[in-house]
Amino acid sequence: MKNNSQQMTTFRQLHEQQATFILPNAWDVISAVMFEQCGFKALGTTSAGIATSLGYKDGEHIRFEEMLIAVKRIVSSVNIPVTVDIETGYGETTTEIIENIKRIIKTGAVGINLEDGTGNASDPLHDLDAQVEKITAIKQLSEENPVFLNARTDTYWLNVGDEEMKFTETVKRANAFERAGADCIFIPGLTDESTIERVRKEISVPINLLAAQALPTMETLTNIGIERVSSGSAPFRASATLVKHIGEELINEGTFHRMMDDVMPYGEVTQLMNE
Q: How many other C-beta atoms are found inside a 10 Å radius of the C-beta of residue 186?
């Protein structure tokens, strides 16, 4: 059985080491197990991967109960810390969100990712005071039920305003989230090296960025002082893309290379479920 106290210690220590670490995001048991087999010391879930693999659009269209079942399976399948993408919390009120987080904690997960995007293009970000209220409540919950809170702001992801406005709003929200008790600030969409350096100087807690082709190298991010990079839904999308290419090869060429070349044998894959 997992020692959640030790798992939390391990997870926090990953954010305190000198080098930037990569957090892969799993969507089911086999992806979680494969990431652990590769040597990752922790993993996250991807809301997009879980939802889409079960037939839903991303953005809390999946019922919380279904998402929770997937999370339970992922957490129980690995021996490393797991943090859960709960989007905006799957609740209309802070009370509902806190109750959902309690259930996430009971799965054995050590952390959550809470975002401030609304899904409304005309009003893209949740009210700052309302978001701070949620984070404050999560911090209070964490005093008895420890949970590592990664507070996400979508200022860059949703391209809110011009470059200076994005920077200013990001710092404003990050500092407010930190004061409310956030353990880490997630800024997906931020890839410019000079801006990352500016943001780093304004935020005291660990910073989480999202993997992207335009993101600086891990060495550069380490030198800047960035603690964490998440893979997001990219591994899931890469897997879906491979299935698409396999299908295209089968139907258009009648050959089997993409699904046969350098592929794990059946026995090796099934053995993973017995370990």
A: 26
- Residue 24 three-state SS: coil
Q: What is the pLDDT of residues 239-257, one digit of tens each?
A: 999 999 999 999 999 999 9
Strands 184-186 and 148-152: parallel
pTM: 0.96
Q: What is the pLDDT of residues 163-178, one digit of tens each?
A: 999 999 999 999 999 9
- Indicate where the chain has its CATH 3.20.20.60 domain(s): 4-232
Report DSSP letters for 149-208, one per residue: EEEE--TTTTT-SSHHHHHHHHHHHHHHHHHHT-SEEE-TT---HHHHHHHHHH--S-EE
CATH code, residues 4-232 = 3.20.20.60
CA distance 238 to 233: 9
